[in-house]
């Protein structure tokens, strides 16, 4: 088998480190071209010394001296700053893992896509924010989009028999998050430390809070609509606390194909890494007898308004998803900084959506401008309407 060249955008994060676990398990199959991270220069340098890429890039320039000094004499280039992140993302490589959190990952991911190779997409915010602009860039470049998000990878696998035309609907499962059974009062007072405790998955802070509000599932509804060209009413969400079935495709003859697996992100990452082949992983094997029971129920729209807001954004036209995503990124950061309460996240996002509506998006510049405007308006809402709480 030919050696596959690999670049990881977001190598120091939860998805990035699990990708590295897989690469290190099969060192003869892969060669790492570049590792790119945000701030964690110590871990990035350690990863670079183990994987020996051509270059390691740290977005935060303050981390450059540590990265440069640790890599001195190794033959591995050290670079820093946003421009270097985008330039190195653009260097041709067979497979790019797009795992930078938030719209910070949009331009690097599109730079990688322009090479027309495989993009393993974990960074759902980039697709939600840029929508058709993102998909057009992928299609124009002839790149292959491989969904890493567990639910979308499950749908991708369940569609593999080519029966897309016979699809009736898909079902995305949700764990329900740490507040699945909590009262509204508990949620109102919940500190970030509690919201960060996901019942099933170990993930970065931003997506963990999104799972707690169900904005993660809302973003995933939009992500699924874009990747699989589905109408909003063709996408259903079911809470499935065991997180064993990740997604299902329902066909018009009544058949339902589901993808199952232990809740371990190395499984969908490995699927995209080896696609269309499969590689062995050491991930835990599914033991259905031990699981005993698989349960499902509809999400509660009162405690979790995020799903309604995401559906409104999806139906509201292009720019509404950009606004929802940007407002949510700012609101989550404000919650983590204890500037607002947990339930304020959705309230804030809804206010910003009402203020900005759904402006059309002609190109990437329009996406970035709307993203910046939505962030500024969310900040101004935060400092005015939520000022008393912040005091
Ligand atoms: N974790 C999971 O299981 C899943 C995650 N996803 C998606 O994957 C993406 C990554 O999630 P996750 O790994 O949990 O997040 P983490 O917070 O764990 O990791 C984020 C990564 O992005 C890097 N990063 C952040 N900002 C920048 C920047 N401006 N420039 C370059 N690099 C940057 C971080 O670097 P550093 O740490 O050095 O600052 C880190 O390597 C998200 O979009 C998430 O929604 C989807 C499905 C599952
Ligand atoms: C692993 C993964 O794909 C996450 O997006 C996961 O789905 C989060 O769990 P929730 O179902 O609680 O959002
Ligand atoms: Mn997911």
UniProtKB/TrEMBL annotation:
Domain 1-deoxy-D-xylulose 5-phosphate reductoisomerase C-terminal: 145-228
Cofactor(s) listed in the protein's UniProt record: Mg(2+); Mn(2+)
Chain positions recorded as NADPH binding sites: 12-15, 38-40, 123, 125, 204
Pathway info: Isoprenoid biosynthesis; isopentenyl diphosphate biosynthesis via DXP pathway; isopentenyl diphosphate from 1-deoxy-D-xylulose 5-phosphate: step 1/6
Pfam families reported for this sequence: DXP_redisom_C, DXP_reductoisom, DXPR_C
Alphabetical UniProt keywords: Isoprene biosynthesis, Magnesium, Manganese, Metal-binding, NADP, Oxidoreductase
Location of the DXP reductoisomerase C-terminal domain: 260-376
Record InterPro entries: DXP_reductoisomerase, DXP_reductoisomerase_C, DXP_reductoisomerase_N, DXPR_C, DXPR_C_sf, NAD(P)-bd_dom_sf
Residue ranges of every copy of the 1-deoxy-D-xylulose 5-phosphate reductoisomerase N-terminal domain listed in the record: 6-131
Any Gene Ontology biological process: isopentenyl diphosphate biosynthetic process, methylerythritol 4-phosphate pathway involved in terpenoid biosynthetic process
GO molecular function ontology, one term from the record: 1-deoxy-D-xylulose-5-phosphate reductoisomerase activity
Annotated binding of Mn(2+), by residue: 149, 151, 220
Binding site for 1-deoxy-D-xylulose 5-phosphate: 124, 150-151, 175, 198, 211, 216-217, 220
Family: Belongs to the DXR family.
HAMAP family per record: DXP_reductoisom
Annotated protein name in UniProt: 1-deoxy-D-xylulose 5-phosphate reductoisomerase
Originating species: Acidiphilium acidophilum
Underlying gene: dxr
